[in-house]
Design brief:
2 domains; 219 residues; Trna Endonuclease, Chain: A, domain 1; 5 strands
């Protein structure tokens, strides 16, 4: 690294500020170059290709998405299971549901959260939620154990960061007498982003996110 690079790194410790300054300097350098159509330029007459062709922009966009998702996976992977339980409860409240009970640490009988669609819990359905922070996918027997504690007017929500096996997903889809929704980490995160503005400050801090806009090719 050059001395100028070290100074910039020390002066611009925030990654976004560093990126903005890099973009500003690049644009200033680019505007000082002769037109790309001219045969002669600072390279001694050698034509310089566009420094950010569409293919490279696409690669950068995909790499940024992949890196961001890896961070989410790592963040949730080390989260305390009870913190994840509180996160799901906060999301339900942001979605307009009324959470009446969150299981304390210890045995919970398979139910981690109880919620209703009205403040007093007088209107069905009653929503029973089980939250797991498992790396492995939930198998069909694990799903059936949760289904067994759902009443006829209950709605079940099973959240597992590791997802569900195909057999478990098929079991959930083909239920005739039990209503069940499966939520893996991808769907949980999408719901979190969709309802982020409705979360209160305490719940936002459980998994803070922020959008960053940058050049991306059209799909």
């Amino acid at each position: 690294m050059t001395d100028g690079g070290r100074q910039a790194y020390e002066r611009l410790s925030d990654p976004e500020a560093f990126y903005r300054e890099a973009v500003r300097l690049y644009r200033a350098w680019k505007s000082s170059r002769p037109d790309a159509d001219d045969e002669g330029d600072a390279s001694g007459g050698v034509e310089i290709e566009n420094p950010t062709p569409l293919r490279e922009v696409t690669q950068t966009f995909e790499e940024a998405e992949e890196q961001a998702w890896d961070e989410v996976v790592r963040f949730v992977g080390v989260m305390n299971p009870y913190d994840l339980q509180e996160l799901v409860a906060g999301l339900l409240k942001a979605m307009g549901y009324h959470v009446t009970w969150i299981a304390p640490p210890g045995k919970d009988g398979g139910i981690d959260i109880v919620a209703y669609s009205d403040p007093l819990g007088t209107r069905p359905p009653r929503i029973k939620v089980q939250v797991k922070r498992h790396q492995d996918a939930v198998r069909v027997d694990g799903l059936r154990a949760f289904l067994a504690i759902l009443g006829e007017e209950d709605v079940g929500i099973f959240v597992n960061s590791g997802g569900f096996t195909k057999d478990a997903e098929h079991e959930a889809r083909t239920q005739a007498s039990r209503r069940i929704t499966l939520i893996d980490l991808r769907r949980l995160f999408d719901l979190w982003v969709d309802h982020y503005d409705e979360l209160d400050d305490v719940d936002r801090r459980r998994m803070p996110v922020r959008p960053i806009w940058f050049l991306a090719p059209e799909e």
